[in-house]
């Protein structure tokens, strides 16, 4: 069974799946989400905010 990484808000408990790029879940590094190939041009986006703070990555 594959565990799907999620982003979770510690304040309200809201959860969302981590975006996918190149058919794999993105990784979190330095407050950004990167594609598995680690290319800034290929899937590079900020971690979303919820309740005024960055959501936390809940990985595998």
Sheet with most strands: 3 strands, antiparallel
Output the strand order for the largest sheet.
2-1-10
Question: Beta fraction of the residues?
Answer: 35-45%
Q: What is the residue-mean pLDDT, rounded to a whole number?
A: 85
Helical stretch tally: 0
Share of helix, binned: under 10%
**CA distance, first residue to last residue:** 11 Å
- N to C succession of SSEs: EEEEEEEEEE
**What class do helices, strands and sheet pairing give?**
mainly beta
Low-confidence stretches: none
Number of strands: 10
Q: Give the overall shape, derived from the CA principal axes.
A: flat
User: How many structural domains in the coordinates?
Assistant: 1
How large is the radius of gyration?
11 Å
Structural description of this entry:
The chain has 60 residues and is mostly beta strands. The chain is 0% helix and 43% strand. The protein has no helices and ten strands. Strands 2-1-10 form a three-stranded antiparallel sheet, with no helix packed on it. The protein has a three-stranded antiparallel sheet with strand order 5-6-7, with no helix packed on it. A hairpin with a 2-residue loop joins β3 and β4 (24-25). It starts with 5 loop residues before the first strand and ends with a strand.
């Amino acid at each position: 069974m594959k565990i799907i990484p999620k982003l979770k808000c510690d304040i309200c408990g809201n959860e969302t799946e981590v975006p996918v790029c190149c058919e794999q879940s993105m990784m979190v590094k330095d407050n950004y989400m990167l594609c598995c190939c680690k290319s800034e041009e290929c899937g590079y986006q900020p971690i979303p905010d919820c309740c005024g703070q960055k959501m936390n990555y809940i990985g595998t």
